[in-house]
Amino acid sequence: IGLEITSAAGEIHIDPERCVDCGICSSVCPSGALSCRAPKWQLQFDLRRCVVCEQCIAVCPLDAISLTL
After folding, report:
1. What is the pLDDT of residues 21-69, one digit of tens each?
2. Which of 12, 13, 25 is nearest to 61 (CA)?
3. pTM: predicted TM-score of the whole model, two decimal places
4. Does 6 map to a domain?
5. d(CA 40, CA 53)
6. What is the span of the domain harbouring residue 25?
7. Cβ atoms of 45 and 23 closer than 8 Å
8. Which CATH number belongs to the domain containing residue 29 in this structure?
């Protein structure tokens, strides 16, 4: 079928100083690596689930998410 799995070139990094836990990034995360749930409503990031699609970087209004190599 021609499918190939390769490791991502980097990792997603969330700057805790800039992040305000708005949850916008979790709404676009296709793998569920980012979540923001009751009762604390704080952003949670599960690196093991992250596929480094970088969609979260584009939607973060505070530029708190970046790709580290």
Report:
1. 999 999 999 999 999 988 999 999 999 999 999 999 999 999 999 999 9
2. 25
3. 0.85
4. no
5. 26
6. 11-68
7. no
8. 3.30.70.20
